[in-house]
């Protein structure tokens, strides 16, 4: 494992914080949730098809980005990992991350876009440099915008669906006044983007953990089983019932561990632990075969996970089915290898609560 920014074994936690939006622009290398992506490399952004949902084909929405350089690798002097998710709740299925895509971008200290010394923290001039200086961007999602509105000839879009979305949201009226049409924020983006906030990172400091005894766990289980809240199988089949009991006991332990661990920092939205072990929400549905890095062939390693608490800040529809996860795990190339590409796709894995942890969660 390469040198880390934190002492070995320390997890960095991310919290949502209110920050002036200008501080969340590319120039300041932010970690953030929502809004347009603050692209790191400002050219050769992911193509429209790379940023589309593998389920429904629609353009994905930017979820969050983490600034995570490798201090021992000059090519990764700057490095940011971006997570995108489909807004269509029908594409969200249990333990299936095909509605989520992850990209990393990295730059050496000397590069085509940024100065070698940190930019002064002030609002004036914060908009530049920006990916929009180099490419037309979709005004709805902030990805590449190769399509131009035929009416005003100003508004740019990544795709037909985003053009249609913006048209319905208000561009229909705006289009008649081309001089007033801008490409930063628009009626469609206000509906499409998630609320924008900073993600502030800090090390996790744990009080000594008092593990539950086997007996306590089992007692809780008995209680749950007797409560009738647990989905039960055919009562006659005692073998299945026993197996289920065992499975639940395991899951419970994992879920209890999850709950104990996050108790001290309940607002955490991200856990960063490159090369470490994820905090599982369940002992079931752990990933079995994360594909190796496409370029160098090395097995990908866990880098960070997005926690369920982030959903609260996304203001997704809470009635009925909505975008949801127990946790989203992000796996990346351990060497963060160079690939002659500005944006390299990595792997997301979604783990959801098992039925039993769902019951516990709602208690
Ligand atoms: Zn979709
Ligand atoms: Zn778009
Ligand atoms: Zn127009
Ligand atoms: Zn690699």
Describe this structure in words.
The chain folds into two domains: 12-128 and 195-204 and 265-354, no CATH class; 214-261, no CATH class. The strands form two sheets. A ten-stranded antiparallel β-barrel has the order 1-8-2-3-4-5-12-11-10-9. Helices cover 20% and strands 18% of the residues. The chain is an alpha+beta fold and 363 residues long. One zinc ion is lined by residues 53, 55-56, 58, 86, 88, 91, 99.
Descriptive labels:
363 residues, alpha+beta, 2 domains, 10-stranded antiparallel beta barrel, two-stranded antiparallel ribbon, globular, disordered N terminus, binds zinc ion
Coarse structural class: alpha+beta
Report the count of strand segments.
12
The fraction of residues in strands falls at: 15-25%
Q: What fraction, in percent, of the residue positions are helical? A: 10-25%
Bound molecules: zinc ion
Mean pLDDT reading: 87
Q: Which blocks of ≥5 consecutive residues have pLDDT under 50?
A: 1-6
Strands ordered across the widest β-sheet? 1-8-2-3-4-5-12-11-10-9
What's the SSE blueprint?
Elements: E1 12-17, E2 32-33, E3 61-67, E4 78-85, E5 100-107, E6 147-148, E7 156-157, H1 160-174, H2 187-192, E8 197-203, H3 214-227, H4 238-263, E9 270-272, E10 301-306, H5 310-314, E11 327-332, E12 344-351, H6 355-361
Provide a quick synopsis of the model.
With 363 residues, this protein is an alpha+beta fold.
